[in-house]
Design a protein that fits this description.
- It is built from three helices and ten strands; from the N terminus they run E-E-E-H-H-E-H-E-E-E-E-E-E.
- The protein is of the alpha+beta class.
- The protein has one domain (4-112, 147-167): hypothetical protein PF0899 fold (2-Layer Sandwich).
- The strands form three sheets. Strands 1, 4, 5, 9 and 10 form a five-stranded mixed beta sheet that branches. It has a three-stranded antiparallel beta sheet with strand order 7-6-8, with no helix packed on it. The chain has a two-stranded parallel sheet with strand order 2-3.
- Helix 2 (46-65) crosses helix 3.
- The longest helix has 20 residues, at 46-65.
Length: 168
């Protein structure tokens, strides 16, 4: 398995395998819009589709470098503020059709929002994920510590041989 960051969202930078980052900017309006979509209707927005395709490109590049036959499993960490949990699952399945990632399992760990207050120094979960106020003094001058990241944690590939053993 391999770990690498695939997004510059103010927290994760760089990559051990590729220098191609994906940029995510999550705003309250964006989060609300993402939660209002009905992804079971078969509609995949351009933003989410671009993220899914970039993830597939990174996994495909890794598989090619390691002469793998297929991608078996992709594990991703997503911050709650990205608003991408359900949309990425849906778009990944659509975008993976006809690629080396078709049939791969996408496993997403959701990362909760944590803030650090610049007024009192408290670090913790905000009072409300949309207003992002300090849990101690209710100040709105907080820095997001976790919750907006997007990170490709691991890729499990199937070797290009008869034993179908995943590479680690």
């Amino acid at each position: 398995m391999v770990g690498l960051d695939f997004c510059r969202a103010g927290i994760n930078y760089g990559s051990s395998l590729t220098s191609t980052p994906i940029y995510i900017v999550a705003t309250t309006a964006r989060i609300v819009r993402s939660q209002q979509h009905n992804y079971s209707s078969g509609i995949c927005e351009m933003h989410e589709l671009t993220i899914a395709r970039s993830l597939i490109d990174l996994a495909s590049e890794y598989a090619e470098e390691n002469q793998a036959r297929a991608i078996d499993h992709i594990f991703v960490r997503l911050g709650v503020l990205s608003g991408m949990l359900r949309p990425l699952h849906f778009c990944f399945t659509s975008a993976a059709r006809g690629t080396i990632c078709e049939g791969a399992k996408l496993d997403i760990e959701e990362v909760a929002v944590t803030v650090e207050c610049s007024h009192c120094g408290q670090v913790g979960s905000p009072v409300n994920q949309y207003s992002l106020r300090c849990p101690n003094c209710f100040s709105n001058t907080v820095k997001i510590v976790t919750g907006n990241e997007m990170q490709l944690v691991s890729i499990k590939v199937i070797e290009n041989s008869d034993d179908h053993r995943p590479l680690s």
